[in-house]
Amino acid sequence: LSLVPSAQTSRNQIWQVVATVTRGNSDPIELQSNTVEVVNSPPSIVSVEIAPVEATAATTLTAAVVGYQDIDGDGPIYSYLWTVDGASVGEDLATLETGLFIRGQVVQVQVTPSDGETEGEALLSESLTIGNAAPSAASIAILPVHPVGASDALQCALLESSVDVDADPVSYQLSWLSDGVTYPGDPIGSG
Fold first, then answer.
1. Where are the beta strands (DSSP E) in the chain?
2. What whole-number percentage of the chain has pLDDT above 70?
3. Residues 6+ away with beta carbon under 8 Å from 7
4. Which of 55, 56, 100, 175 is the most exposed place for a label (fewest CB within 10 A)?
């Protein structure tokens, strides 16, 4: 038997074996094998990860594919299937945008590699549980902007409220400082 090493073959080649049999003084007999075409080999990936590893409802998630390999040297094409609590969500993209998951839900992504001709084995990421998001910063100001001493009371005005993407209630606690020192009195309407 004879063997051609796999490294010597490539996609779309057509191979055939021709053998010549000789027996003593008889005319040689030529034998031909069937023909085979070397087909495209499917690509593979080593793993799929979701980044960042700590995420909140305000985080855009990204699928990171590790270890793409294709024996034929073809470039990678990936298809993505995102799930939240086991249900398909989002589009066939490497990212999952905010608004499609909330705190406490479990996100996974399945990635299928392709070389444009053949798909490889799909791999599923580890589960990622969405964490609690901090509320956005509020904006406050003291009014009036130019108070007149002993004439104008100072008021803390909430210019922009905090927003919590997890829909948790947000409360404020105020402390007044006078010349950098905590005001010892009890302001009216604090809390």
1. 14-15, 18-21, 29-32, 36-37, 47-51, 61-66, 77-84, 87-89, 95-96, 106-114, 123-124, 128-129, 139-143, 155-160, 177-178, 181-182
2. 96
3. none
4. 175
**Hey, what are 163's tokens?**
């927003």
Q: What type of residue sits at position 7?
A: A
Q: Report whether 55 contacts 98 (CB < 8 A).
A: no
Nearest to 72 by CA among 46, 40, 120, 38: 40
Beta bridge partners of 36: 15
pTM of the model: 0.72
Amino acid present at 39:
V
Of 164, 98, 170, give the one whose Cα is nearest residue 134: 164
Q: What is the pLDDT of residues 102-140, one digit of tens each?
A: 999 999 999 999 999 999 999 999 999 999 998 989 999
Virtual CA dihedral for 79, 84, 89, 94, nearest 10 degrees?
A: -40
